[in-house]
Design goal:
Layout: H1 2-18, H2 25-41, H3 45-59, H4 63-76, H5 88-103, H6 107-112, H7 125-137, H8 146-156, H9 161-164, H10 174-187, E1 191-202, E2 213-224, E3 227-236, E4 244-248, E5 251-258, E6 262-277, E7 280-296, E8 307-323, E9 328-338, E10 354-364, H11 366-374
Antiparallel strand pairs: 1-2, 1-10, 2-3, 3-6, 4-5, 6-7, 7-8, 8-9, 9-10
Helix pairs in contact: 2-3, 2-4, 2-7, 3-4, 4-5, 4-7, 4-8, 7-8
Length: about 375
């Protein structure tokens, strides 16, 4: 009961100090910010701390109030890791948006979102004073300390805090933990993947008589963390290097000599990242597909149907990607394919082809990647 009475008097005193009428947060925030600057310039840090508590009690924690709290702690040498909360990163982003308004004179943005910016007009006395104060305070701390990073950010309006907080020295700080918690939320989001593929299909064993064939196609799928999932469709073409014999389904005992060849592959491929650094990525890949080629053309004049060779395809290999930026890459993949082209008895020879493919691809989730970029987190580059 005594605490309630003291607290009530405490609020009433500040109510009288800033105005004689009931005010909303727009009035309170502006007037309290003026009082905060006044008390800090007079070195009355206890009074400055009291107005911050009043400010938070009346309007809740918003970026300008949180900034005042951090700078007061830095000035008094009482900064503690507990001042970093789940809302800290949001406040930092809010502050950077405020700086953008000042830098590019986009004051209409503030007019539309006064509540979001804590009812403190950008570029006026409160902002100017806190920037000046932070520039002075930065000299009081070790450049490798969290206090230094915060003072540097508020003083020079530097977003390098997100690059520097990734240093292992800050891993156990609350800001480091909150940073990586936020990063993890975006990193785990899947990305869409699409690539154009071109390469060469190289037969081995008895299949060598068909000779190598160019191959083109595309992949479409998703990348999630280190895993890659794709539907792949490719076509191989050009006549075979040598003539070979093939049978039609309605004439099994009469093989025909041919050099016709047009093939296809459709399957599901899975890849797992083994290595990723500075834009270089290596994947272990594997897949299951349907694979085959046309061996004999249709002859309508004498009523002969076309004949096609089909087989399962189990494959495995390695893929290398070099990311030009966070979304666009160039890739090279080599696969060993296990097939049996004799299954439907169109031909009586087989072998396990090797495919070497060059790809141009895109991996992207715009929402995910834009947020990671804002956090200065190196996704792939």
């Amino acid at each position: 009961m005594v605490y309630f009475s003291i607290n009530q008097v405490y609020c009433q005193d500040f109510d009288k100090l800033i105005s004689g009428r009931q005010m909303d947060c727009s009035d309170i925030s502006y007037n309290i910010s003026v009082l905060f600057v006044k008390y800090m310039k007079e070195n009355k840090t206890d009074s400055a701390g009291s107005v911050i508590k009043y400010w938070q009690m009346k309007c809740g924690e918003r970026e300008p109030m949180y900034r005042a709290k951090i700078l007061l702690a830095l000035k008094n040498g009482t900064f503690k890791d507990s001042l970093i909360t789940e809302a800290t990163l949001s406040h930092i982003f809010n502050y950077f948006e405020r700086i953008e308004i000042i830098k590019y004179a986009k004051y209409y943005t503030y007019d539309q979102y006064k509540s979001y910016f804590g009812y403190i007009p950008p570029g006026q006395e409160f902002d100017n004073y806190t920037m000046q104060l932070a520039r002075e305070l930065v000299n009081n701390y070790d450049p490798k300390s969290l206090e230094y990073l915060l003072a540097e950010m508020y003083g020079d309006n530097s977003d390098t805090i997100f690059s520097k907080i990734q240093d292992k020295n800050y891993a156990e700080t609350n800001l480091g933990r909150e940073y990586y918690k936020t990063v993890e939320r975006y990193v785990k989001m899947p990305e869409a993947h699409m690539s154009w593929v071109t390469g060469v299909w190289i037969p081995t064993g008895s299949l060598k008589k068909l000779g190598p064939h160019p191959e083109v196609g595309f992949q479409i799928g998703a990348k999630h963390r280190k895993m890659n999932y794709d539907l792949t469709l490719t076509f191989k073409f050009l006549r075979s290097a040598n003539y070979y014999y093939a049978r039609r389904s309605n004439t099994p005992d009469s093989p025909e000599r041919t050099n016709h060849f047009f093939g296809g592959y459709i399957g599901f491929d899975i890849g797992r990242d083994l290595f990723l650094k500075n834009g270089h990525e290596v994947q272990l890949t594997g897949g299951l597909a349907a694979d085959g080629f046309d061996a004999l053309k249709e002859n309508t004049e004498i009523g002969l149907k076309s004949a096609s060779v089909w087989s399962y395809n189990f494959n495995a290999g390695l893929e290398y990607r070099y990311y030009i930026n966070n979304t666009f890459y160039l890739g090279l993949r080599a696969k060993y394919n296990i097939v049996d082209y004799t299954l439907n008895e169109v031909i009586d020879f087989t072998g396990n082809p090797v495919t070497v493919q060059f790809s141009i691809g895109l991996v992207n989730n715009e929402f995910r990647n834009n947020n990671l970029k804002a956090l200065k987190y190196r996704i792939r580059k």
